[in-house]
Structures are given as C-alpha cells and as structure tokens.
Specification:
Strand content of chain B: under 5%
Order of helices and strands of chain B: HEEHHHHHHHHH
Helix content of chain A: 55-70%
Radius of gyration of chain A: 41 Å
Number of helices of chain B: 10
Strand order of the largest sheet of chain B: 1-2
Largest sheet of chain A: none
Oligomer: heterodimer
Distance between the termini of chain A: 134 Å
Structural class of chain B: mainly alpha
Number of strands of chain A: 0
Number of strands of chain B: 2
Structural class of chain A: mainly alpha
Strand content of chain A: under 5%
Shape of chain A: rod-shaped
Largest sheet of chain B: 2 strands, antiparallel
Helix content of chain B: 55-70%
Order of helices and strands of chain A: HHHHHHHHHHHH
Chain lengths: ~220, ~210
C-alpha cells in the first residue's frame, strides 16, 4: 500500500452500499409530483393595491387647488373674522385685535411695526388689502392694468372693518391710508378714492400730501 | 471513425458515478445539466437517469460519515432539495458539484444538530461481506481489511474525511472540492494528503498483523 492508486483500488474494493429500493421509490415518487407552486394571490393583491393607491394619488392631486389659489381661503377667513368683530361691536373688535396669534390681530401687529407671517410668505393680508384696493384704481388710470388676485377682491370687505377700528377709541396713531406716496398723482388718486369712501382720516392724509407735494391738483 | 471531442460532444461525456465502473470518461448520453433542464420541463425520465447516476456515490458519501438511520434521511433530504430547486437550478457549476455541496451542507447541519461528531461506530455486517464465491480464508482477510479501512475512514477528522470521500466517491477535482467545502484548494490538497497517509498507515499495520499471525 504505497501509492495513491493502490489506496484508491483498495477503497473501490469495499462493498458498494446503495440506497434501498424503498428509498429509491420514495425519491422517484417525490420527483414525479408536481412542483408546489407559490400562491398567486399575494402578487395579485399587491398589484391591486398599487393600482388603487395610484388612482387615489392622482385623484387627490386633481382635486387639490393650485398653491396660489390656496391663499384665498385664508384671506377670506381673516375677512370673516373682521366682519364678525364689526357685528359684535368696536369693543369686540379691539379684543380680537389685542389677541396676538389670532387672525384679527393683524392690524394691531402692523401698527406696532411687527411683520406678520403671511407677509413674510408673500401672501396678501386683510390689512394691506385696503390700500391695495384703493391703489388699484389709480393704477388703472395710469394705464397699468395689473393682474388682480382673487384674494385682493375678496379682501375688500375689510374696508368696513378698518372703519370700525377707526371709530373705536384710538389707542395709537392711525396708520397711513395711502402707501403710495412717492408719486404725487397716485397718492392723490388714493386720496380721491378715500374721499369717495368718506374716510374719516381723509383730512390728515390731505395734510400729509400737502406737506410732501404742496397743493393738490385741481379736481375736475 | 473516432468521435471528435468537440465542445458539444464533450458536454455529453459523463462520469458514471457508480463503482466499480472503470474511472474513465465515457460517452453516457446527455449531460447532467441537460438532464436537469429536461426535468425542469417535465421529463421524469431525465430525473430517473440523473438519479441513477448519482444514487450510489451520494449514498456512500453520506453513509460513510454518519450512522445508517440518519444516512437514509439525509440522502432523501438532499434529493428532495434538488427536486424542489429544479425551477431555480442554473447550470453555472457542474451538477455533481451542486449535488455534493447540498449533501455536504446537510451533513454539517446534521453534525450541528447533534452537537458532537456523528456516531460512526456502527458497521453493518452486510457492508463487509464480500462475494460469496470467494474462499473463506480470503474472505475473512478481505473483511478484515475492509473493516479496517472503513474504521480508519470514519476515524479521520471531518475535513480530511470529507476531502477523501469527495475525491474517491464523487471523483471531484481539488478545485471542485474546495468550492464545496469552502476552503482553498491548497488546504484541500493537504487534507487529502494527510487522509491518505493515515489510511495507508492503517492498512499497512493490518497487513503486517495478518502476516505475523
């Protein structure tokens, strides 16, 4: 027994064991059985779920308004709050304005020089809607037709709220009614519009105009 | 006219696993990979052919490393895995490498389940019986040698026994054995050399005792 070949020969001389006939039959029978297929329903359920979710997402996107239109309800809410304050009386309007964090507190915060979150976000507010609306007519007269946002028009009722706040006992100096003061023509157009609306702060505005631009132009 | 050994023809050269066939590469019909492919497509006869090729070597590979009762179970488990994986089988490696890797892993799992080395002390008398026509003295001597060889094989460390049986029983190359056991080919070569040295030494001592007696 000196080489690998001799050892291999000796190994081959060992009795050849083999599986029993019964074991052979069991294995061959198992091989003939149909392979157990994986159930199909999980795949179908997953596909159906994907389809339903996709349809839901698409429908949701279609129903949601665009982002620039989404600011309108907020302004409307502020206007409704101001209307409610007016209907309750000037005291209620003050209490609403005095509460920071509520939508009606915007004019008071503006008077104190604090920027509002909606202003920071570039959204139109109830406070700046009044001068914007008044300035709109002057812009039209100047031939510059500006695209007015729906939110601006919906904020027009705040003019009455502003009047209610003006009739209330003044806590601080009223804010300037016309923001456009650089251009004499626009400022005077704003004052004309205030005159039409019978604004009580009109005289102060005219005095301010005279102080800056001198005598107003003659009314046609 | 001699057959040309083209790549196509070489795939049909199969080693008929069962001993005592001469260890030669002979033309034996379709390759293992082709048989598995046909079996995937529903040809039951292809599996029967494949099973007939490997039933002996695989059974002995398992039987010589574990007790008889567990050997039957493991043998069936290995073939069951082959049957269940028929749809996923891809002929990347040779089928015999694939088959004996499954068997090797099943044996390792069986060792782990037991938590100790397999009980290899059981040597059935039937496995030692030689041909009935042989002379009684020669038969006794042959039985003694067989018993000694089988005992020596079972006494080998598991890695050496694995390498030796995969080489002798399955006819695998060093590279294939290395793939199956997950060790470098040089390591397998060393294990094989140690195993053969031990077996030779055992058989030589048995031979000397016979001469002395």
């Amino acid at each position: 027994m000196n080489s690998d070949d001799e050892l291999s020969t000796r190994y081959r001389d060992l009795p050849q064991e083999a599986p029993s006939a019964e074991l052979d039959a069991r294995i061959l029978a198992a091989a003939q059985a149909e392979p157990r297929r994986r159930p199909l329903w999980p795949k179908l359920a997953a596909a159906a779920a994907v389809v339903v979710l996709s349809i839901g997402v698409v429908t949701r996107i279609d129903l949601d308004p665009p982002l620039n239109e989404s600011s309108a309800p907020q302004t409307r809410t502020e206007a409704e709050t101001a209307d409610a304050a007016e209907s309750l009386g000037s005291g209620a309007a003050e209490s609403i304005q005095a509460e920071p964090g509520k939508t009606g507190a915007a004019p008071a915060a503006e008077r104190q020089g604090r920027p509002r979150a909606s202003q920071a976000a570039g959204l139109p507010t109830a406070a700046d809607a009044v001068p914007d609306e008044l300035a709109l007519s002057s812009e039209r007269e100047a031939g510059r037709e500006e695209i007015a946002l729906p939110a601006r028009r919906q904020a027009v009722p705040n003019l009455e709220t502003r009047e209610a706040a003006a009739t209330a006992p003044p806590v601080e100096a009223p804010p300037p009614l016309c923001l456009e003061r650089q251009s004499a023509r626009r400022w005077w157009s704003c004052i004309e519009a205030l005159r039409d609306a019978e604004n009580p702060g009109l005289e102060a505005e005219i005095e301010a105009y005279r102080a800056v631009h001198g005598d107003p132009p003659a009314t046609p | 006219m001699d057959a040309q050994l083209t790549p196509e023809a070489s795939r049909s050269f199969e080693y008929p696993g069962d001993w005592p066939w001469p260890r030669l590469w002979v033309v034996a019909g379709p390759s293992d990979g082709e048989l598995m492919q046909r079996y995937r497509e529903g040809d039951q006869q292809a599996f029967a052919t494949l099973y007939d090729r490997y039933r002996g070597p695989l059974f002995r590979f398992i039987r010589r490393q574990i007790d008889p009762g567990s050997a039957d179970d493991l043998f069936q488990e290995v073939w069951t895995k082959v049957i269940q994986a028929r749809d996923r089988y891809e002929p990347k490696a040779q089928f015999n490498t694939y088959l004996f890797r499954i068997a090797h892993n099943a044996l390792v799992d069986a060792y782990r389940r037991r938590g100790r080395r397999p009980d290899l002390a059981i040597v059935e008398a039937s496995t030692l019986a030689g041909p009935a026509a042989e002379e009684p003295d020669r038969r006794v001597r042959q039985d003694a040698l067989n018993h000694a060889l089988l005992s020596a094989i079972r006494g080998l460390p598991a890695a050496q026994r694995n390498a030796f049986l995969l080489r002798e029983e399955a006819g695998l190359s060093l590279k294939q054995i290395a793939q199956i056991v997950g060790a470098p080919a040089e390591t397998v070569k060393s294990q094989l050399r140690y195993a053969r040295d031990k077996l030779r030494s055992t058989l030589a001592s048995v031979h000397r005792e016979e001469i002395q007696s």
